[in-house]
Amino acid sequence: MADRTIKNPHKLLRAEVQVPGDKSLSHRALLLAAIAEGDSVVTGLGPGADVQSTVTALGQLGVTITDEKIRSPGIANWSTPDAPIDCGNSGTTMRLLAGVLSTSSVQATLVGDASLAGRPMHRLVEPLRVLGGRIETSPEGTAPLAVGGVNDARGGSVTIEVASAQVRSAFELAALNASGPSTIDSPAGFRDHTERWLNAAGRGEWTSATAFTVRPGPIAPARYDIPGDPSSAAFLWALAAVQPGAEVLTPTISLNAGRLGFLQILEKMGAEVEAVVTGDVGGDPIGNVVVRGRSLAAVDISGDLLASALDEIPLVAVVGVFAEGITRVSDASELRVKESDRIASIAAMIRALGGGIETTDDGFEVVGTGFLEGGVVETDRDHRIAMAAAVAALTADGPVTIRDADVAAVSWPGFYETLAMLW
Question: What is the pTM of this model?
Answer without folding.
Answer: 0.91
